[in-house]
Amino acid sequence: MSLGNVRGERPIHGLLTSSPLWQVMEMAADAQSAHVSSRLEFWKYPDLMAQWPFAHEYETTYSLADSVLEVTTTITSQTYLKF
Predict the structure, then answer these.
(1) How far apart are CA 14 and CA 7, in angstroms?
(2) How much is the pTM?
(3) Cα-based torsion angle of the residue sequence 41, 18, 10, 59 in order, rounded to the nearest 10 degrees
(4) Among 5, 43, 49, 63, which is disulfide-ready with 55 (CB 3.0 to 4.6 Å)?
């Protein structure tokens, strides 16, 4: 709670929603639909890793078509285990 980017009683909620670290990867629109995809490479930021020490990245896509909003989020581990 002392890192400055955590707020509220449940710090996991909202940690990344307003982060400026998201990178827009793709966006497009036409008369019928629109979409935008963005990525946050969590593992690159020591302040974030101090709060959740598992190397991963997020990719989120928002798609709007026929008055329906679809949100897809993928979390990819950047930690590779050796057996």
Answers:
(1) 8
(2) 0.74
(3) -30
(4) 43
Q: Could you give the residue ranges of the DSSP H alpha helices within the chain?
A: 46-49
Q: How far is CA 50 from CA 13, 23, 27, 54, in A?
A: 16, 21, 31, 9
Give yes or no for a contact between 61 and 43, defined as CB atoms under 8 angstroms apart. Answer: no
Tallying the residues shown for the chain, one arrives at: 83
Q: Provide the 3-class DSSP secondary structure of residue 41.
A: coil
Structure confidence by residue, pLDDT tens digits, 27-44: 999 999 999 999 999 999
Sign of CA dihedral 4, 59, 75, 13: positive
Do 26 and 44 form a contact (C-beta atoms < 8 A)? Answer: no
Cα distances from 36 to residues 10, 17, 57, 60, 67, in angstroms, run 28, 15, 17, 8, 16
